[in-house]
Design a protein that fits this description.
Chain lengths: 283, 248
């Protein structure tokens, strides 16, 4: 249990980021890897504010705004300078490494004796993280159903039609990237409080965890008959938790920690590539 | 009233300029159903795309009811212009449901707000509109657009254009990819819209029979300019044979 519950809590903390990846990758069809930078940015901003005795609740909107700003930067580079979104994301992610270090002033901020939203027993913390991710899921579901959300989803589906419907595609993409990276920053905010420190390297390669959640989620989405937005969001949430559990079991089974990234890649490969042939989902 | 004055367009094939549209003027009155014919490369699509704002003209002016829209972007012109594309997949979003597609169409000239717009009243309204088609789709409003046939999607696209104010409906070979029955439905629907709304239609087609059966004005284009422009009276005297000889 001392392995399983922390893994579940981590999975729930990463769910926000996984929702963000789902939004860019699946709703907008944009591969965005600003993630590594905006995740750390969220953690760093949270850590700086909390270590200066700001209440975590007050820090939250600032963290979200910081993440959104990173998304806007990627969105502007992609839509205004017409750079490929991958390149735009790499540029912002790389810049954020320096910016994060500048904000921190040092490579590591401990939060041992500071205020944290995770200040109860393990099961309390798990409940709190679950509540956070479920509220987020409902909010996102609501967003997708609003007129604005429908316009966002249409943007990823058919740009030609969207323009004819009076929708500014660039604005939609920038808004989508802003929301996705605000969500990613939220994961950073949750994780630094849960693990009790922020580190400049905490975001390196984190994008794969979000991708794994989305793709693992989809690989068992074939068991759900529905292809609605709601079930998609649930599978992303479950995928995020499942991914952490798989990693925890791998460690328990004696896989050396340095092999975890390789294992992650193999897991994503299995989920994305091999399951496709076994289950042959519709489409 | 749509006024196109002296618009022209050159494309560049490497260093060599290719004239896609000679300086062209065209006035379309309310309730006019203008059919454009012409061989491939005659400039029909260029004209349509310039009016829609997909491509910008090198010179000239486009006005809708006296308002100059030449400088407006494609998505800004959607306040005046509704479109039906040649590819039935183009006019609708596959990943969205029928009702969600209609919601966007209803907001073509409005902002898309952060509030849920699909309520019972809206659904009832759409159900009535979709029943125009007689395809039974009014009972499947929550189906994904991608699950429908090309004919069904194109018919829905035409109905969607009526969801919000517009002055001009641009149709670029809307029946080219459809079976004869679906094509007939699209043409009748367009005629019905024109009889019920104070709008104009500009349609490009390669099907000469449609020129005889539909519309109240026909234009022929060749080498980037308008070479024939027949009003309702002269159009009614046309025979299929005559039109075919236009292309000799």
């Amino acid at each position: 249990m001392e392995v399983i519950i922390p893994a579940i809590i981590q999975g729930l903390c990463y769910a926000a980021m996984a929702f963000g990846i789902y939004l860019t990758l699946r709703i907008f069809n944009i591969p965005d890897i600003t993630t590594d930078g905006s995740y750390t940015l969220g953690g760093v901003v949270a850590a700086i504010l909390i270590s200066n005795h700001w209440h975590p609740a007050v820090a939250l909107p600032i963290v979200l705004a910081a993440g959104a700003l990173a998304g806007v930067a990627t969105g502007l580079i992609h839509t205004q300078l017409k750079l490929h979104p991958l390149l735009a994301g790499i540029l912002v992610m790389t810049s954020l490494y320096s910016i994060n270090l500048f904000i921190m002033g040092r490579p590591n901020i401990p939060l041992i004796n500071e205020e944290s939203i995770f200040n109860g027993s393990a099961s309390f913390n798990m409940l709190l993280a679950a509540m956070f991710s479920i509220i987020l899921l409902l909010l996102l579901f609501w967003l997708m159903k609003t007129d604005f959300g429908i316009a966002m989803r249409a943007t990823g589906s058919n740009e030609l039609m969207v323009k004819a419907m009076g929708i500014n595609i660039n604005l939609m993409k920038i808004a989508g990237l802003a929301i996705a990276n605000a969500l990613t920053a939220l994961s950073g905010y949750l994780m630094v409080q849960y693990q009790g420190f922020a580190d400049i390297n905490m975001g390196i390669g984190i994008v794969i965890a979000g991708l794994a959640a989305v793709i693992l989620g989809e690989s068992f989405a074939v068991f759900f008959k529905s292809s609605s937005i709601f079930s998609a969001l649930i599978t992303v949430l479950l995928g995020s938790v499942l991914f952490r559990l798989l990693l925890a079991f791998a460690l328990l089974a004696g896989v050396p920690p340095q092999m975890l990234k390789l294992l992650t890649a193999v897991l994503v490969l299995l989920a994305a590539g091999v399951f496709k042939f076994i289950f042959k989902p519709a489409q | 009233m749509i006024e196109v004055s002296q618009i022209s367009k050159k494309f560049f094939d490497g260093e060599k300029p290719v004239i896609a549209l000679q300086p062209t003027s065209l006035q379309i009155k309310v309730k006019e159903f203008v059919i454009i014919v012409g061989a491939n490369g005659s400039g029909k699509s260029t004209l349509l795309n310039i009016i829609a704002g997909t491509i910008l003209c090198d010179a000239g002016k486009i006005a809708v009811n006296g308002k100059d829209i030449t400088a407006l972007k494609e998505h800004e012109r959607s306040r005046f212009i509704a479109r039906v594309f040649q590819n039935p997949q183009s006019g609708t979003a596959s990943d969205l449901t029928i009702i969600e597609n209609f919601r966007l169409a209803a907001l073509r000239s409005h902002s898309k707000k952060l509030s849920i717009g699909i309520d019972k009243k809206f659904v009832d309204f759409i159900r009535e509109r979709v029943s125009w088609l007689g395809l039974g789709l009014e009972d499947q409003l929550n189906r994904k657009m991608g699950a429908l046939s090309g004919g069904q999607r194109q018919a829905l696209t035409v109905v969607m254009s009526t969801m919000d104010d517009f002055k001009l409906l641009l149709m670029d070979e809307p029946t080219a990819a459809l079976d004869p029955k679906s094509a007939e439905l699209i043409m009748q629907l367009t005629t019905r819209i024109l009889s019920q709304m104070p709008v104009s239609v500009l349609m490009v087609t390669h099907q000469t029979k449609q020129v005889i059966d539909y519309g109240n004005r026909v234009i022929q284009m060749s080498s980037g300019q308008i070479i024939r422009d027949l009003d309702k009276a002269s159009k009614e005297k046309l025979t299929l044979n005559e039109i075919i000889h236009w292309f000799d």
